[in-house]
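Chain and backbone:
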Amino acid sequence: MSGTAKPLLIFDFDGTLANTIETGIGIYNELAAGYGLRSVTSEEVRELRKLNTRALLDHLEISGLMVVKLGAHIRKILHQRMESVDMIRGTREMILSLHGEGFRLGVITSNSADNVRMVLKRFGLLDCFLFIEAGVSLFGKTHRIGNVLKKTGIAASSTMYVGDETRDMEAARKAHVSAIAVCWGANGREAMETEGPDFCIDDPAELIECARQFERKN
C-alpha cells in the first residue's frame, strides 16, 4: 500500500475481544421468564453457535422489538458486572502486537463506551485504539463503519472489520471492507463461513498474520 500508513482494523467488542458472552447468557437466563422467554442450557448454547444471528433469534422466539428492549436490559445489568469480565484468552497479546507493528485499531460496538473503556483500561489496552464508537445505533454497523471511514479519511480498501457474529460479516460486506470472522464468540465456524469472510480464524494469534497478509495485498 502507498505511504507508510498501516491498514485499519475495526473490532467488535463483545465476544470478539471481551468474554462477555458467558456473563450475558447468565443475565439472559435471569431475565428470560420476565420476557416470556425460556432459558437456555450450556449444551444448547453450543448448538446455537452453529446458527446465524437471525436463525438464533428465531429459534429463541425473540422478535426484533424484543431484541432492542432485552438488549438494553442486559447491557444495563452487564455494566454492573463489567469488573468481572475478562479479555478472551490471547486477545490482549494480539492487540499489543498489532499496535506495536503500527496497525491502526478501533472499536465499533453496541456495548457502552464506559464498559469498553473500563475493560480496555484494566488490561492496559485503551491507548492502543484510535477510536471507540459505542452504543446502540438505529442504522446498524454498516452505517457506523461508513461514518468511521469518513471521519478518519481511511479508505474502505485499507480497512478490515473483525467480529464474532454473522451480522458483523454482513455489515462488513455491505460497507465494502474486508472481514475477519473469529470463531470463538457468539457464532461458530459453521455459521461464520456461510457469510464468506476474507479470513476465518480460531485463535487470536492467527489474526496477526491475517493483518500482515492484508497489508501485503494492499
Notes: The two ends are 5 Å apart (CA to CA). Residues 21-84 form one domain.
